User: Fold this.
Amino acid sequence: MTGARPAVGADAFLGGRLQLYQPLSGHRAGHDAMLLAAATPGKSGDRIVDFGAGVGAAGLAVATRLAGIDLTLVERDDILADLARRNAVLNGIAARVCILDITAGAAAFADAGLGPDSADVVLMNPPFNDSERHRPSPDENRRAAHVAEPAALDRWVHAARRALRSGGVLSLIWRSDGLAEVLAALGRGFGGVAIRPVHPDAGKPAIRILVRAVKGSRAPLRLCPALMLADETGLPSKESHEILSGAQVLAM
Assistant:
């Protein structure tokens, strides 16, 4: 989606170690992106691909933690892709940015240098509100970031499965009431699924799930301890504060 260049501002993440230019209106990266980054594994030398990268928040947060990775940010909106490039430069991170729709075919991915079996890790925060059940935002960018057409998750997972090498890892964040959709999508070609629920606090139901899966694995599903974003006083919990400040990874 193209259009007039939006007004942008800079926001700090990971305790100030990551600075990001973002549009002042519409969808803005926040806790979901940082939680996804903290739950994404990797090591120096890995090829890590961020699907639907937006301004690059999650992928660049991973690169802030893991030196020496080969990072690719995939985004279909050229305005957001341009901001992702600016953000990589701003933070001194080497990253390649591809303008590509995740639902494109294998040939388009190969033309962009993302051929089959070429990635060690794929992370993604797909649009997760069903367009048939949720009232869409009037803001075009926010609507595109949050509202998905039916079967969109299947298409995103299919693209990740194609891009990942055998044994490669998919890391994603999704709404908690969509767990069945996630497990159904991962049932084709993935195993070793680990799920970590994310709750606002101990008294409220989960609002998100963080999911990790391994291509070709036959390991059983694991349900990990829940993450509480706030403690009993209403302040950020010690664990969530350390994760969102970049002081701790999110165990899965």
Residues 199 and 206 are 4 Å apart (CA to CA). DSSP finds eight helices and 13 strands in the chain. Residues 78-90 form the longest helix (13 residues).
